[in-house]
Write a structure and sequence with these properties.
Length: 448
Amino acid sequence: MFSLGGHEFLKMPHSIESSISFQNDHSFLPKRTTLFPLLLPGKWLINRTTTKPLKNNKDTNRSLNSNKPCVAGGWAITLLRECARAIFEKNPRSQQLLWVLNELVSPYGDCEQRLAYYFLQVLLAKANKLGPHCHESLKLAMEKNYCFDTYMKLILKFQEVSPWTTFGHVASNGAILEALEGKNKLHIIDLSNTLCTQWPTLIEALAVRNGETPFLKLTLVVTDSLQKSIIKEIRQRMEKFSRIMGVPLKFHVISGLDNLGELRKEDLGVEDGEAIAVNCVQALQRVHVEKRELVLDVIRSVNPCIVTLVEEEADLTSTRNDFIKCFDECLRFFRSYFNMLEESFPLISSERIKLEREQWMNISGALTCHDENGGEYRPKKGTQWNEMLKQAFWPSQFSDDVLSDVRALLKRYKIDWDLGLPQSTHETGIHLKWKDENVVWASAWKPS
């Protein structure tokens, strides 16, 4: 037996790690090198020698990662599904399946072993009816081991090998710049939790814009406890970067909120004459399902010129009350994510382990917690967001110039990445595709 927070779990033989363990940071593992460093959003955060950019200075080198195939869809998917169903049906056979899985999984193995390892930890918590408790323990452990510089280096490494985040940054920035063209008093309301890594490239674009350099107010809405602890560092670096670029910046922070559902129009500090853009990168998926309409009402109330929305392509909202359907959707989505990491990082990689452990949090929240008790990760598919947003906004299609920028970005990476365009007049937004499967959806909207 082993104990977690005063509760006892069945200890499986030869277990590689305990269910909740952040003891090892794996800093001894060899680092992956990049032959062609990419000029991606967020570089400013650790670059101490930032200089003002020249026009038309684009790096479009394709990364030279190996093309090793990996498919996580064999024994892991079969056993995990069978085990999840047995736990849900309270079948005693679940103990045997948990035991078998424990003998096969590893957080340091191949794609299937890693995927199965993290899902196994969640199933153990589910079987012992300790899902919310274990999820909270995960969050506390991550906060205890958090380091701003280390986390930013992890983000930059991820951006070098994958367009998972930068796809949405490039698409959103392009739409925002076009919508605010010719305006001199700009106000961007950022509801995302991306630590401002999106904005350096936009500020660079404003610095070389024809005509008078505009004044920019950036309002950052902070609900994540980790962000609250390092917001001073982000402010200092953003203000320093904008001075170097020659773009006047007012950095406004809204904190003290537990979630975006508590946001009110008066909090946003909107002033007369401002051209407003609202940016939501993987933000609404972390809003309580019943409060999403309220957040959209607040966004609409500031009369924005443009609203950008980027979300991961997984339906963990409509399936949230059906454990088996939710489990299958989690497996489908995170199989692609873990497969992407497999082909983007070496087998022995501290960055890969950290990224996988971050997703452990999301898997745990989706499968073991009710929304009000920590299940804050509830993405929807683009078609579902589309139906919801059309009640308040008009869809705004990305221009050919923005699509060209997105395609140029994808050329930096492996050929398995692709751009998915709308297939009918009823569809809105664009998709980032990994091996022909949609993984991220980006869209732009204007007031109706």
